[in-house]
Design a protein that fits this description.
Mean pLDDT: 91
Number of strands: 21
Number of domains: 2
Radius of gyration: 21 Å
CATH topology of the largest domain: UDP-n-acetylglucosamine1-carboxyvinyl-transferase, Chain
CATH architecture of the largest domain: Alpha-beta prism
Shape: globular
Bound molecules: shikimate-3-phosphate
CATH superfamily of the largest domain: Enolpyruvate transferase domain
Helix content: 25-40%
Distance between the termini: 25 Å
Length: about 425
């Protein structure tokens, strides 16, 4: 896969309408739910990125048939107990934390130990955050260094429901516990700090016995044993995290306008819109509608005359978790000092994004201070990357930009109008 996008030419003011590729979180969840459905589920606009392809390979290893044809995917679900657990099975989650963590919830009842491996970056990430709650159900884990991949999970046939407080605001942990609860007799109760809620919404569309009570700062989720998952045909809406790159491009351009069609604007994902609006970027959500419980809209972005600095409320952190790196670029061009607080979780991603954020900004001549998960960015509206050849330095190792792009293969977007 091509990993670098180099824009050599100056971008002239533009007026474009684009369509982005499908949402990563929805694509992986659709693959996993459909693998356990009773019958054939079809999706359109499934994200064809490496993370989603890894999810497809994983369910194939578990004995599920998949047909991929252009952007249409058919999954021949084998029923809730349909996985073929063989001896010495190895599942490779590659670079995907979402796959690696969510699938553990579904493997909670394996009859043989299953090994989960990942690439170099995934192997450095924390899996104890999922193995801890899943052990409480009765599964046994062995992890490298007690917290990393490779790990083996040995499930149990005598699962006990649990009560758990998910305090990191991690949708991956929450979803793994929901999946495990779906396989367990009795009621599993989760008190979860707010995070993206696609698993809950998909469960609702599938009419699974999972209920959610929304409180101010957390959700109370009750999960009962699932007997049957119906087929789910899904037209995956566009990914706001992929769209974010083009939203920011417009925010940093002059006299430009962009429309991005059919974007998933689920409330738990629109931190970037709220933050950029506060910074002076005009963003309109047009043609709002609901599709399978997810809110969808066409986004219209106009480049602003001036960018204002922001003291970013931490309550927006989880809804912009994959977008902060590029939000920092907007702060770099704002007229004043911006502050982003309580972002320790950013260092738990594919690469330590907060550290990289600071490195990248330094490379382009922007002053920052970093302490205890908070970053202060001293914006400079007159920054000129070309003049000082900053962009040449930047291109050497913008690691954290890759990792956000990589999981979504965002350079495979389709221009619909020009
Ligand atoms: C995701 C949750 C987030 C996000 C990731 C996708 C998901 O991770 O960063 O890209 O689909 O559940 P955490 O749950 O670790 O915050």
């Amino acid at each position: 896969m091509q990993k670098t996008l180099i824009i050599k030419n100056k971008i002239n003011p533009f007026k474009k309408t684009i369509l982005m590729s499908g949402d990563k979180s929805l694509s992986i969840r659709w693959v996993l739910f459909s693998s356990l459905a009773d019958g054939i589920s079809t999706s359109k606009n499934l994200l064809m990125s490496e993370d989603v392809l890894a999810a497809i390979k994983a369910i194939k290893k578990l004995g599920v048939k998949v047909e991929l044809n252009n952007k249409t995917c058919k999954i021949y679900g084998k029923g809730i107990n349909g996985y073929n657990y063989k001896k010495n099975l190895i599942i490779n989650a590659e670079n995907s934390g979402t796959l690696g963590r969510l699938i553990l919830g579904l493997l909670i009842n394996t009859t043989y130990p299953i090994k989960i491996v990942g690439d170099k970056s995934l192997s450095k990430r924390d899996f104890k955050r999922v193995s801890d709650p899943l052990s409480k159900f009765g599964a046994k884990f062995k992890l490298k260094n007690k917290k990393n991949l490779p790990l083996t999970i040995h499930g149990s046939r005598h699962l006990k429901p649990i009560r758990y407080y998910e305090g990191k605001g991690s949708a991956q942990c929450k979803s793994a516990i929901i999946f495990a609860g779906m396989r367990t007799e009795g009621a599993t109760l989760i008190k979860a700090k707010k995070s993206r809620d696609h698993t809950e919404l998909m469960s609702k569309i599938l009419r699974l016995p999972i209920s959610v009570k929304k409180r101010k700062n957390y959700d109370e989720i009750k999960v009962k044993k699932v007997k049957k998952i119906p087929v789910l045909n899904y037209n995956i809406p566009s990914d706001i995290s992929s769209s974010a790159f083009f939203i920011v491009l417009t925010a940093l351009s002059k006299k430009s306008e962009l429309i991005i069609k059919n974007v998933n604007i689920n409330h738990s994902r629109i931190g970037i819109i709220k933050i950029l609006k506060k910074m002076g970027v005009k963003i309109l959500s047009k043609n709002q509608r609901f599709y399978k419980g997810e809110k969808i809209a066409d986004l219209k972005i106009k480049s602003p005359k001036n960018l204002k600095p922001i003291n970013c409320p931490s309550s927006l952190n989880s809804s912009a978790i994959d977008e902060f790196l590029i939000i920092f670029l907007v702060a770099a061009k704002a007229n004043g000092v911006s502050l982003f607080k309580n972002l320790e979780e950013l260092n738990q991603k594919e690469s330590p994004r907060l550290k990289w954020g600071q490195k990248i900004l330094k490379k382009i001549g922007i002053k920052t201070t970093l302490s205890n998960g908070s970053i202060k960015i001293f914006g400079n509206p007159n920054i000129n990357l070309k003049k000082k050849n900053y962009y040449k330095k930047l291109l050497k190792r913008p690691q954290s930009f890759y990792d956000v792009c990589y999981s979504r293969s965002i350079f495979w977007w389709d221009m619909v109008y020009s």
